[in-house]
Amino acid sequence: MQEFIAFNEQRAEIYWWMSSLFARELSDADLHEYHGGEMYTFLSGLGMTEDLKAPVDTFRAAIKKSHARSDEQLELAADFCGLFLSTPKSGALPYASMYVGKTGLLNDKPAQEMHELMASFDIAQRKEFNEPADHLAIELDFMGNLIIMGNQQQTEEQREALMQSQLSFINTMLLNWLPLFTKECQLRDRFGFYAAAANLLLAFCILDKKFLAGE
Questions:
Q1: Alpha carbons 182 and 195: distance in angstroms, whole number
Q2: CB atoms within 10 A of CB 57
Q3: Rounded to two decimals, what is the model's pTM?
Q4: DSSP assignment letter at 172
Q5: Are 92 and 83 in contact (CB under 8 A)?
Q6: At residue 215, does pLDDT exceed 90?
Q7: pLDDT in tens, 57-91
Q8: Residues 115, 92: contact at Cβ < 8 Å?
């Protein structure tokens, strides 16, 4: 049981890490960690899983390439803004509504559904992150919380119910638009750091879906 709880904690940490990556520009302190030994060890561990080896290698190459930029923090911040804080015509906006909504506008049905889902599990959005509920960072943060909530259940039936909720969430709220978002990142991200991150996230979500489905 303890191994299962620890494994779930690792899953949650990956979702939270990816949430932070798509929530805001990386700071100098963040980049120092990205180029340090702990991140190298963390990514090496992920890459030991066959399904993640190629996307991890691509992301590690993007980190190394980023380190060679003359003003890394400012240039990556410009990449972030150009991709995620611009317009649908020039960027890859990180909102589900832009890919599976009906209007092509923010706060479409996916945002409403996400808001209702968070309320049903009594999981609150961070007040300092004032974005529509279907922002990628919010959805990934929610998934991390859902995983930890599953760990806190007292019975096998309760834990299984939360696992099924996680599987449903991946299928209906993440994998229904993440492939489209990843494709847009690959088309728009000239430098490639965030495209590699999105590709790794997509591969991890697909792998996590297999785990939850018992495949």
A1: 7
A2: 14
A3: 0.97
A4: I
A5: yes
A6: no
A7: 999 999 999 999 999 999 999 999 999 999 988 99
A8: no
